[in-house]
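Review form for a predicted model. The reviewer records the input and the model, then writes brief findings.
Reviewer: anonymous (R2)
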Amino acid sequence: MFALRLWSRLPLWFVQGCGALAGWLAFLASPSYRRRLLDNARLAGVRPWGAVAQAGCMLAELPWMWLRPAGRPLPLRWDGVERVEQALGAGRGLLLLTPHMGCFEAAAQAAAERFGASAPITVLYRPARKDYLKALVAAGREREHLRAAPATLSGVRQMLRALRAGEIVGLLPDQVPPDGLGVWAPFFGRPAYTMTLAARLLQQTGAPALAVWCERLAWGRGFVLHVRAFQELPEPVEAEAAATRVNGAMEALIREAPAQYLWGYNRYKAPPRAPAA
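Model under review:
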């Protein structure tokens, strides 16, 4: 933790430069990771080379994002912040959906800094299995106006309460859910086990949703948080149709800057007891 706190005080350009180098080293050293990244990018019809360095930047940024001093604001500007203001003005809460793209950790922190005083944000996370990582994750995701909800039934209840209180909830809908908590839906033309949680939260609370992604600017110049409209789900809607709609919205975001998507993420894996695609 001491070394990571020192890392969080280094200049962002240096952190990202080291991360880009680490991304290429991982790509060259791991055949399984390299094959998955290339296969996923090829399936989407995009060139993968920029994503190799960007994946390393994402990893290197995590300690910098989680452990940066509380008084140091994010070097971030908004694109479409009026959409967030309008949605929160309705008083029904707000669900922010973002894929594993760019600096998605910055999206939650930016929302907490700008809107947290009146509408704190709750984000879903999967608890770390390693003890030494639990302290790091806890220190990073329990910041002012930012709450972490575990990927359990109690965490789902926590997110429902937050939306019903008019607050913000952040979710990565391209994260593979545990078996029984998802359905098969197309993602870049291939069946992917997709969580149903996003649709359930919207249908049970009536909250609006927005699609967002946080662009990483070159040479440590900071980030841009892009806010896009999300088409409301029809009522009622089957789980497969809702998951397909959510995946389509995430695909549209990814195609804005495919080099910043985490193509090495094992998006098409199936939980051990999930039904066959």
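Findings: DSSP finds ten helices and nine strands in the chain.
Further findings: The chain has a mean pLDDT of 91.
Recommendation: see findings above.
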